[in-house]
Amino acid sequence: MTQDTRAGDLAYSDARDRLEAEIERFASRSGQAGLEIPKLTFEKGETRFEFMPEDMPEEMVLEGLKVIKNHLEHIRVHTLDPGYAVFQSLGTNLYETKNFLSGIKFKFVSITNNFRVEASRSGNFNESELQICIELFQLFHPANQQLDPTKKLEQLGVTVFAPESSASGESDPWGPIAGYSAIKQEVEECLLLPARHMSVFEGVARLTRGEGAANLPGAILFEGPPGVGKTTMARLAAGAAGLPLIYVPVENILSKFYGQSAQNLAMIFDTAALFERGILFLDEIDALATSRESGLFEATRRVLSVLLRKIDGLDRTGGLLTVGATNRAEDLDHALLSRFDQILKFPLPDEQERSSIFRSYAAHLPSEALLTLGKESYGLSGRTIQDVCESAERRWARQLIEKKQALSAPEAEVYIRVLREKRAGMNGSS
Ligand SMILES: Nc1ncnc2c1ncn2[C@@H]1O[C@H](COP(=O)(O)OP(=O)(O)O)[C@@H](O)[C@H]1O
Ligand SMILES: [Mg+2]
């Protein structure tokens, strides 16, 4: 059988170099100098990858299948017997039957105490196929199993904020965030209180709707213009609920792992699911907000389909809550929007809220000054107000230094002046 070469196939020597480089990186990351490089050969027109893991428990084979599925669309399970599992890729188009059974094949074999993982196909491996081999090798390596989910997530561009042990008291969880009482109340009812008093929520749902009913959202969307406190609220809520915040900067991941982002995102969800409880925060999903423009990049489309699948697949009764944040929900893909049970709109702050925000950054100012500042800051976000207050402080410090004055807090005039300058600057630039 002649094998068509596919676009994106890697020449054998390139594949070999990539494999070596990746294994070396993995070795140094996990502190395993001189790790043996798995075999990659090309003979009689066939590429073959092989390594001998130390152990092969059944659940690891299923983990392996997950890795394969993260990269390849259609997988056929040939065999799934204890000690012998074979999976094969069926290509991207199921109706294209010409080379139906020539796709890459993965074998997981264990005979007594001999274990072998193998991948082979006629012709060359492409990027995804090589990547699967690398990930399988890492998956089965003992060093990887000691890696805790937080470290794994960090390698994927995700930060995990552990809750501070002191934070989950009953005092005001919202710290510096002023105003927005309706939103705070929603977040408390969807997220904070259930984390602390789950049994009450379950009990209420049982009384109103019977056994097994739940009324907690699995996914919430924060929507609003930049700088209104979406990210900050998510962090404070997680802290107050005593839950880790798994912070996924979608836009960054999309650009940083270009081409690999869909697979990485899938892995992020799988790894996050290892946390018993937590908040998975997908920040700035605007990167995917292109439903109006027909030309969605192929890579973006793949990321979107992973997101849809994974948000749906998360165990809702389990402890992982997904929170997304976006500047423009109206442009988000409809299928993605529909995954969120609840949309919380963060508007720009009103006059009274702006005064309160000024107060939270300039507590020393008299109320008339705060009222004036609130009035004059129409249309500004919390972030811009914070910027104004910080500029005013620097301006004041400079003045103290230049005039050799004794230490004091900035006068209201400075805030008003800086605010007016900021407004003039904004009007000028728009
Ligand atoms: N209502 C508010 N009260 C106090 N500070 C605010 C408020 N809204 C936003 N900020 C401040 O503005 C900054 C940016 O907020 P952020 O959470 O990053 O906004 P977003 O995620 O909506 O863009 C943060 O430092 C935050 O403390
Ligand atoms: Mg933000």
What would you say this structure looks like, in words?
The chain is elongated and about 85 Å long. The protein has 3 domains: 12-147, TATA-Binding Protein (2-Layer Sandwich), CATH 3.30.310; 159-345, Rossmann fold (3-Layer(aba) Sandwich), CATH 3.40.50.300; 351-429, Helicase, Ruva Protein, domain 3 (Orthogonal Bundle), CATH 1.10.8.60. Strands 1-2-6-5-4-3 form a 6-stranded antiparallel sheet, covered by helices on one side. A 6-stranded mixed sheet has the order 7-9-10-11-8-12, with helices on both faces. The termini are far apart. Helix 9 (250-256) packs across helix 10. The protein is α/β, with parallel strands linked by helices and 430 residues long. Helices cover 46% and strands 17% of the residues. The model has no long low-confidence stretch (mean pLDDT 86). Helix 11 links the parallel strand 10 (277-283) and strand 11. The chain contains 16 helices and 12 strands. The site of magnesium ion has 4 residues, from helix 8.
Major sheet characteristics: 6 strands, antiparallel
What is the residue-averaged pLDDT? 86
In the CATH scheme, what's the topology name of the largest domain?
Answer: Rossmann fold
Succession of helices and strands: HEEHEEEEHHHEHHEHEHHEHEHEHHHH
Low-confidence sequence ranges: none
Q: What top-tier CATH class of the largest domain fits best?
A: Alpha Beta
Distance from first to last alpha carbon: 64 Å
**H/I helix tally:** 16
- Summed up, the domain count is 3
Strand order of the largest sheet: 1-2-6-5-4-3
Please compute the radius of gyration using only Cα atoms: 27 Å
Name the hetero compounds present.
adenosine-5'-diphosphate, magnesium ion
Helix content: 40-55%
